[in-house]
Amino acid sequence: MPEAGDNPDSLMSLCTVFCLKNLRRTMCYTGERNKLCLRPDVFLPSEICDKLVNVYMDLVYTDSNFEAQDGFFQLFSDPRSTRLTRLQLRDLVRDKDVEAIKKQVGKLSVTRGLKSCILGLYHQPTNTSFTYLNPVVDVEALLKPLPALTSLDLSGVYLPRPAFLAQWRDRLASLVLYNVDLSEELISTVVQMSRLRHLDISRENQRNSKFKMTRKILTSIVQSLGNLVSLDISGHIMLDNCTVPQFEDAMGRPSIEPSKSSIYPFQELKRPLQFLGLYNTTLCNVTHIPAYKVTGSKNEEQVLNAIEAYTESRPELAHRAINQLFDIARIQHCSQLLRALQLVIAALKCHKYDKSIQVTGSAALFYLTNTEYRNEQSVRLRRQVIEVVLNGMEQYQEVTVQRNCCLTLCNFSIPEELEFQYHRVNLLLLKILEPARQDESIQRIAVHLCNALVCQVDNDHKEAVGKMGFVKTMLNLIQKKLQDRMCDQVMEFSWSALWNITDETPDNCQMFLNCNGMDLFLDCLQEFPDKQELHRNMLGLLGNVAEVRALRPQLLTSQFITVFSNLLDSKADGIEVSYNACGVLSHIMFDGPDVWSVEDPERDWVMDKMWDAIQSWDVTSRRNINYRSFEPILRLLPQGISPVSQHWATWALFNLVSVYPSKYCPLLVKEGGVALLEKVLELDSSQPETKDMARYTHTHTHTHTHTLSQNMLCVHHW
């Protein structure tokens, strides 16, 4: 069963997203002047309208492939066909959009961006909400015509004459005074509001605050506001001692009973609060707090509550709380992993353009998705992480965000877990690697990811990535490293990535040659003669190029043949460099003596060197190579034009089925290699040593696959 909160998307959610992505095919049509219009036979109730608008805003902010629709909000201008009740609008909403939805009747609570102002939308004078976010306008004059207010948000507003708020003392159920400079007059006005259920007098921080929260003030609030279920006093300095002595606080198990409260004023509560904000105060550290949900920094639960409470409208506080979650995940252990991930994902989606949230959120994701927590995460949740990470990479070229995002991607199985965003992630990584002088650590991680993404994927994926400029980007990185005379991980990973992306992909091999890849190969070989890993990667790549018949003439030059022949003697990385050099030459020899246009070295001399090299290899050598297919090797078997090429191919199969029988015996059978080995045994041109290896390979493969089949039959019979 899926974990709570990690269930599959509801049918409602899936249909909503589909409709929004296909408006003209579902609920809309194109009117005059290409105007988006609602179909005349459509009536949408408030539940669907609210969902459509709020999901639309999420898609605009979080889905890079979703385009905002001009005229979308005008679809909801007629209350006879659409009904809206509660919306969360953001900065990209224009005045004409707001004007359209103002025509709605009934209760409509609207919150918009951080630097805008929405007038109270009220048509039924019994229930009205007002969110005020512009601190410059005279709020008293603005609010005076709104006698029916029940919810008032005056965050950050200067209130020189707060007594005017008393006109709503018998109506207000919710009052938010976040970052408002408190005074005795304001507090005395607030405690008159006997119907208040939610009061927020919190601050972002304690700096520049002349007001001190005293035990007397807190007691007055609790005693006067008997209907209170939610209170936030985060960020305040406590002037005098509001808490019980330490020895008393430490007694008994933690309790939410008001009578046992460690905070004296809250002992006056009739019942525990549903929510109590104590973030950035000393009060969050006490043992007995009479509230079901508390924000603070004492433990994981309080920190997660803070992220949940403040993400939407207090990004500065959410940023701090996510930073504390980062420390918990990094140093301690996160016990509420699912909730933590969902909250961080929500914060990153909500604040896609907030750099501080993106930095701390992506850092937290790195630790929350590592191996320690992996078994607790579903496929769906991990995909959500990938999507917000890619959002961050798209939006920010800043070093820290890019590094955090790339490191987080390294926690996933590549390419499998990234395949659903394969095109997008490759584009982003290549974009990271474009700058001439990128941060070294990001460059290293990005090249590693690029390499992993083109390893073990089908040829269609490789060709698509090649067309994005992958080959050219890797060669540019190699060129820069050559200029710096530096052979580091970036250099080696770049050649490895080229080796992978050219595997059985002729178009990418052609790109390598077209972009002067062979010149870079020679330059690297000369500049770094002792770098074994580098040589192995380069020769592996050239083996792929040599497998393409149409490209082999470009390798048939005196300079290249001499280099390949000399590398036959290499002992670098065991037999790998010598083996790959011999593979390149084997494919060239396979084209026959008629195409050999090189005078020096002579073809026979090169073939003799190839025979000597193959004879020197230990057939039990463990390999640093991974074959997905034997097809390029198998095509060298049934022929007599180049016995040395046939010998190299037979040795390769002999070695692989001997050392890795479980992996390569079935592959050899599957691709028809057994019949081709029989052909080698039949050919008069095959050398005795070649036939011996072919015979052993044939027998060993038959024995292994027969034994495996018998074991499977026994299991089934049992």
TrEMBL record:
Residues 141-281 form the Zer-1-like leucine-rich repeats region domain. The keyword Repeat applies. Keywords: Leucine-rich repeat, Repeat, Ubl conjugation pathway. InterPro entries: ARM-like (IPR011989), ARM-type_fold (IPR016024), Armadillo (IPR000225), LRR_dom_sf (IPR032675), LRR_Zer-1 (IPR056845), ZER1-like_C (IPR055142), Zyg-11_UBL_adapter (IPR051341). It comes from the Eukaryota. One of its GO terms (cellular component) is Cul2-RING ubiquitin ligase complex. Residues 348-696 form the Protein zer-1 homolog-like C-terminal domain. Belongs to the zyg-11 family. This is Protein zer-1 homolog. It comes from Astyanax mexicanus.
